[in-house]
Amino acid sequence: MDLNRKRVLLTGASGGIGQAIAAELAAAGASLFLVGRSHEKLEAIRSSLPEPDRHVVFPADLTREADLERLNKEGNRLNQSGQGIDIVINNAGANEFNFLSRRSAVSVRQELDLNLLAPILMSQLALNWLNRPGIILNIGSAFGGIGYPGYTVYCSAKAGVYRFSEALDRELDGSGIRVLYVAPRATDTDLNSPVVKQMNQELGNRSDSPQTVAKVVVESLRKETTSRWIGWPEKLFVRINQIFPTVVTQSIRRQQARIHHFIELINSGKL
Ligand SMILES: NC(=O)c1ccc[n+]([C@@H]2O[C@H](COP(=O)([O-])OP(=O)(O)OC[C@H]3O[C@@H](n4cnc5c(N)ncnc54)[C@H](OP(=O)(O)O)[C@@H]3O)[C@@H](O)[C@H]2O)c1
């Protein structure tokens, strides 16, 4: 899709990857509908973009039904006024690195709500008002393709988003709406706590800049690429994990002691 003059609804716009996507899309000539919980943060992003008046902010908590309903109303209103949204990017996300046994049921539910249910419900709403041709692009994770200790809930949510994207894209085949998936590996943003960053460094897990992810997102939109897994060797591990999961299990087993060490540090409050 040519992105010039397209209207893009971007969730998680105030985060590390969201800001980079916003900058790339604005530079490509798109107008942005920036969604996040903090009005102040969204306004700061909007005013940092070229031609700020072309973009709008919409504070909303995607785990709240009332806020999703407000988004739905606004989507319908824009559509009826001839200013409909062309692209929805479900990018908001959060995670907690910990053993499942140490997590509260509330935190598990919240993580699933934001990372899995919110993109599903946003996509469902978008079907009411998205322009045709239109695109829904869901941001996943390498952890959606590889189960990793300490991230059980996040892995299940992102794996769900991957299958959801695949199924909806097939369901909408021929409708004028594409559903795409982009899976970053570790990326340098505040999503990862200092402990997680230190662990990744020690384990030799590479990470990308948010700008690298944003460029892949924009390229995926332009080429309408069904799914993209960012980073080498992670994308190879995702494939191996599908065919020979025990190979990946053995590789992660070698990291297990360090992973447990860092989770214990978090739980002891020493870091
Ligand atoms: N960073 C990584 O290593 C990495 C790797 C793979 C995939 N990803 C995925 O990339 C996406 C962006 O992550 P990021 O690294 O940019 O994270 P981030 O910097 O922590 O940003 C998260 C964004 O989500 C928004 N958000 C959080 N809770 C929300 C809620 N309840 N309702 C609405 N918005 C909410 C935050 O805005 P407010 O707090 O202002 O609401 C913020 O804009 C996520 O889906 C993440 O899972 C990240």
Automatic annotation (TrEMBL):
Q: Which GO terms describe its molecular function?
A: 3-oxoacyl-[acyl-carrier-protein] reductase (NADPH) activity
User: What's an example GO cellular component term for this entry?
Assistant: membrane
**InterPro entries attached here?**
NAD(P)-bd_dom_sf (IPR036291), SDR_fam (IPR002347)
Keywords, sorted A to Z = Oxidoreductase
If you read the UniProt record, what top EC class would you report for this enzyme, in one word? oxidoreductase
| Enzyme Commission number(s) | 1.1.1.100
- Pfam families from the entry? adh_short
Q: Which family does it belong to?
A: Belongs to the short-chain dehydrogenases/reductases (SDR) family.
The protein depicted here goes by the name: 3-oxoacyl-[acyl-carrier-protein] reductase FabG
